[in-house]
Protein 1
Amino acid sequence: MKFFFSHALVGTLLVAGLAIGELARAETTPDIKAGRVIELAPTDSKEKTPVISSVTLDPTGKLLAAVGDDHLVRIFDTASGKLLHRWASHADWVRASAFRPDGLALATSGADRRICFWDIAGESHTRRFSEPLQVIYSIAYSPDGRTLAAAGFADRVWVFDVDQGKLLRELAAPGVDIRTIAFSPDGSRMAAAGRSGTVRVWESRTGQQLYDIPASTRRICALAYSPDGRLLAAAGQQRVVRLFDAATGNPVADLPERPGEVLALCFCGPDQLASAGSGNDIHLWDVATQKERFRLVGHTGSITTLVFDQPAGKLISGSFDTTVRLWDLKNLDQEKLTKR
């Protein structure tokens, strides 16, 4: 016996199936709300409330830097959420920020093609790299703090000697639009990726290219090494987080697809990975089982950045909804579980 279905009926069944699948997932994945929310309110009516491109923590976890499209750099007391400093030097959207591993300086960069350095102790802007650059989407300090890598709208990754303030080397990038850079925890390797979907990995000390990973058919927006350096996570517009063997580049596992592009990745200890993006939720994954443990809810705009405070056990997120949110991952108990 043959059965014939109309296109409308097939469409209805597909939508119903997706809805049932989403409902089943929602019933099995607990929702967590942020413990604290920091609002980036303007100081007067003439200013706009900025969307947030990047947040970063100093090594002590006491200071939090947030940057966005209002060209400003803000420094907050992490514990209280109090605004400590509000610095202006950029002339356009600030896309990236990174504390030096010793905590004495903050680097910021963005659409004005500048990389600015801020003296945390002196509470002021100190210098800029003079090299002619393109729009910068990502910057990253090497773990020893001696070099800073930068990339954006160009077919290269720039690596600077931080102490001398000079360009150390230019590396051929896997495409002309690089959105993310990551150093391995021991500093021996550096990875970068962007529009082409290819992840390129170099030896940090020499700049020698080690291998390429064909990670996606669409743009890669986020990379993250696991704390032990064994895994490299990559994700972006294809919506699937992929895990690779960091030593060889061979695929290890794909995490289940979730709604929205993935714009940020962050390992939260050795066995947990956080992913977030245009779906407005943060997904907390068990790396070993590839199962979603919790969903962190509350943002109302794309989540662009994640950073983990290991000693405090807190995950920090920044979003286009103009807020920074802090999530206590040490105490994910039943009292904090909520329903949508």
Note: The helical segments are 7-28.
Protein 2
Amino acid sequence: MPNRYIPKAELEKLEAAYKGYCEYCKYLQKYTSARLQNDHIIPLALKGKNEFANLAKACISCNANKHTFTSFLDPVTNEIVPLFHPRQQDWNDHFQWSEDRLLIEGKTPTGRATVILLDMNTPEIVNLRAVMPKDEHPPRR
């Protein structure tokens, strides 16, 4: 059974890095009573480690949908591709906001597969994005 204990130093690095948003869908923590979760980018079940390089802050929806997946089908190329890795990749390289800034669009195979698997544009989160103050959404880099 994998060790689920995350050392305090690694958690402190993670807290400092995430800036209050889900690192996948950019859901802002302060607008929910549900705390963002510690996601293992490479799941412990697949030999992922309890270290900052393998941890991301994720909303409940993204974390639950990601589950133990590390890759998924890109609908354009019809190929299985790696999911977005917040510690190794820049969000803006793989995603963009729709013109009205309500939807996350994948720009790359990785981005498209991640948007679909994590269901990053649920009606609830799109509605939240619509009422968020312009200085908080979309988040600045």
Note: The chain has five helices and six strands.
Protein 3
Amino acid sequence: MNRLELALQQISEVRAYSTRVLDEADPADWFRQPTEGVTHLAWQVGHMAMAQYRLALVQVRGPQADDERLIPTSYVTIFGRGSVPVADATQYPTPQQLRAVFDAVHEQVLAEAPTFDDALLDEPPHHPHPLFNTRFGALLWCARHEMVHVGQIGLLKRLFGAAATW
């Protein structure tokens, strides 16, 4: 297994777990917050979609003209660093729309990443980042980042009375 295959395996394994956690989530809980402004499932899903797009695609291959068909540009504002989740569901895409983008970004990563040249992975990412300094590092951080956020979803579910997902 080469390093690109290893990174994609990690991304896929974490996504499989994220999908299980989300599939078991009560749809009524998507915009529920334990305390106003903390977080909710909808924000977490939108954030994970936006982050996977930026980490596994933009940081490695750069932005593409047709990326808007994959993920709305508004996701950076709504779900990016510094955004504050609000309980008002009308401020967000629906859970179905969020899942569709979440899934579409992942499918695009799995389609494009196997074509990345190994030498490209040693180059600096398209945008500086404090947690990695190569494009390969961006791919590795992609899986780690999602695991952090699916853990937050798991905590939310537990706070709302659901059993842990294994």
Note: Residues 114 and 130 are 25 Å apart (CA to CA).
